[in-house]
Amino acid sequence: MPFKLHTCLPMSFAMKTIVAGILVLLVLIPFSYANESIDRRVQISLPLFPRIVAVDSKFQNKLTDGNKARLVFVYDRDKAKAKELAKTVGKANKNIVNVRVDAVHVPIVEQLSADTLTPTAIFVAEPLGEADFKELVLYSINKGIIVFSPYSGDVERGATVGLVITSRVFPYFNNHTLESSGIEINPILLDMSKRYE
Q: How far apart are CA 124 and CA 115, in angstroms?
C-alpha cells in the first residue's frame, strides 16, 4: 500500500513539502552507509537536521529577534569541525520554510551560559562528555529546543533526535525529552521514525 501524505491535522503545503523531503532523503540514502564511520553518520545528518527543525510545530516561535532560524553547532574541543559543519549547513540551507538560516558554531560552555542567545535548535558537532551532555539536555528541555546528535548512544542519553542506521536510515526521537521540552513534531514524521521510550 503506497504511503499517503495526509493527516487529520491541518498541514500547510510547506510543511507537507518538508515532511515529504525528509522521507525522500531517507529513501535515497544508500544501504551501504549502514556500517560506515562516525564521520559518515555526521554527513548523513547534515541535510536532515534543518528539515527536522522545520517540522517542530512551534518552529516559528523559536526564531531570533531578526526573524532567523539560529542553528547552533556546539563543540568542546574541535572548533574547526564545528565551523565547517555550520558552514556546510548554512550554505546548503539559505532558508527553512521561507525563514532565513543563521548557522553558527559556539563552544558548549558559552552556549550554556545564561547570557547567550537561545538558538532555534542545536547540533552536537562532536562527541561530548557525560557532564556537558547532561547539561546540554537540561538546557534544551528548559528552552524547549531540539538537540540533534548524530552520535550513536546520544538519543539514549537524552538528545531530542538522532538517527538509526540499519538497512535504512530513520530519525530516532527520545520520547521523554520531547515530552519534557514540550516539542511537538509532525505526527507523520514521528510515525515513520524510531523512538526511544
A: 20
**Distance, CA of 50 to CA of 85 (rounded, Å):** 12
Model pLDDT, residue 3: 35
**Which residues are within 8 A (CB) of 96 and not within 5 positions of it... i.e. 6 or more apart?**
18, 50, 51, 53, 54, 59, 69
What distance lies between CA 41 and its chain's CA centroid? 13
Label each residue of the chain as H, E or C: CCCCCCCCCCCCHHHHHHHHHHHHHHHHCCHHHHHCCHHHHHHHHHHHHHHHHHCECCHHHHCCCCCCEEEEEEECCCHHHHHHHHHHHHHHCCEECCEEEEEEEEEHHHHCCCCCCCCCEEEECCCCCHHHHHHHHHHHHHHCCEEECCCCCHHHHCCCEEEEECCCEEEEEEHHHHHHHCCCECHHHHHCCEEEC
Q: Is the pLDDT of residue 120 over 50?
A: yes
Residue 5 confidence class, pLDDT cut points 50, 70, 90: very low
Residue with cell 542545536: 122
Mean pLDDT of 18-38: 51
Q: How distant, in Å, are the alpha carbons of 90, 100, 176 from that of 70?
A: 10, 9, 24
pTM for this one?
A: 0.83
User: For 127-172, how does the pLDDT look when each residue is reduced to its tens digit (9 = 90+)?
Assistant: 999 999 999 999 999 999 999 999 999 999 999 999 998 888 899 9
